[in-house]
Design goal:
Layout: H1 2-25, H2 42-48, H3 89-92, H4 100-110, H5 124-136, H6 148-158, E1 171-176, E2 181-186, E3 189-196, E4 209-212, E5 215-222, E6 227-236, E7 239-243, E8 259-261, H7 263-272, E9 278-282
Parallel strand pairs: 1-9, 7-8
Antiparallel strand pairs: 1-2, 2-3, 4-9, 5-6, 6-7
Helix pairs in contact: 4-6
Active site: 242 (proton donor/acceptor), 258 (nucleophile)
Domain L,D-TPase catalytic: 171-282
Keywords: Cell shape, Cell wall biogenesis/degradation, Peptidoglycan synthesis, Signal, Transferase
């Protein structure tokens, strides 16, 4: 009797153990992993997008898991509004100054700096033209902004009347003290267009009059001020034309009577001049 009871208990225990193993191996949620192996840990990572690399034996079934992080993104429709024409990408990086329309007007009148639209709105073409103008006349920074310095220089150049200079025959250097501009004429024809200058400040005003170049030197030493004066052309005592040694557009200062020029202009004037060249200075610098 004891033997029979022991046999029955052994059979019952075997049945319970068999049913328990079947519940883990054939879990319908494993989507047929097969091989009697438990579902791989990588399944949960793949579904949540935590892992983009499936592990060996990972189940594959009709259900589509969420794309992994390494999958290429799906195209989406942008909701960012398109910029209007005046603020196009080409113009955004070029600041607009308070004298935009005036500078456009003067540059259009002067010509030679590219396409300019006189409408008071900055554009890529306007920016390019203003930058070219600023670089030509040594205005810093040359960022295309129509600020006060750019406005003043453009106005002075555009309103210079070359015929006010009584040039006569031969080569004449003309200096308009009022507009602070310089140009050269030969037999009544402009051979060097008006450019910017800086003449004597208060107390050292450059005197108006008609003179002749009396001395020339590629590098003249100034004894009283202890500085080299490149491309020196003297026309009135210790006064002459020469390349500037400071920032030309600093309106708070001036020369001690000389006619300061940018490098390019000093070189060009040197090429045109000689001993005896006529010099006509007229007008008066504001504030002197």
């Amino acid at each position: 009797m004891k033997h029979v009871r022991s046999t029955v208990r052994a059979v019952a225990l075997a049945v319970v153990m068999l049913v328990g193993v079947g519940a883990c191996t054939f879990d319908p949620q494993s989507e047929g992993a097969g091989g009697g192996a438990p579902a791989p840990v990588g399944v949960a990572e793949q579904v949540t997008g935590a892992s983009g690399t499936p592990t060996p034996g990972q189940p594959s079934g009709p259900a589509s898991p969420t794309p992994s992080r390494t999958a290429p993104p799906k195209p989406t429709t942008s909701t960012t509004p398109r910029p209007s024409a005046p603020t196009s990408p080409a113009a955004v990086g070029c600041p607009q100054g308070q004298h935009q329309r005036a500078v456009e007007t003067y540059l259009a009148r002067l010509g030679g700096f590219g396409t300019v639209t006189v409408d008071g709105r900055q554009s890529a073409a306007d920016c390019k033209a203003i930058k070219k103008f600023q670089r030509r006349y040594g205005i810093s920074p040359a960022e295309g902004r129509a600020g006060p310095s750019t406005y003043e220089v453009a106005k002075r150049l555009a309103t210079t009347d070359v015929h006010r200079c009584r040039a006569g025959s031969g080569t004449t250097f003309c200096v308009d003290l009022t507009r602070q501009t310089v140009w050269a004429m030969r037999d009544g024809t402009v051979v060097m267009k008006p450019t910017v200058t800086r003449t004597g400040m208060a107390g050292y005003a450059t005197p108006a009059g008609t003179y002749r170049v009396g001395g020339r030197n590629l590098r003249e030493w100034s004894n009283p001020y202890e500085v080299w004066l490149p491309y020196w052309q003297q026309f009135n005592g210790g006064i002459g034309f020469h390349e500037t040694t400071t920032y030309l557009h600093n309106g708070s200062i001036g020369s001690h009577g000389c006619v300061n020029l940018l490098h390019t202009d000093a070189v060009r004037l040197w090429e045109l001049g000689r001993i005896g060249t006529r010099v006509v200075v007229f007008g008066r610098r504001p504030g002197t």
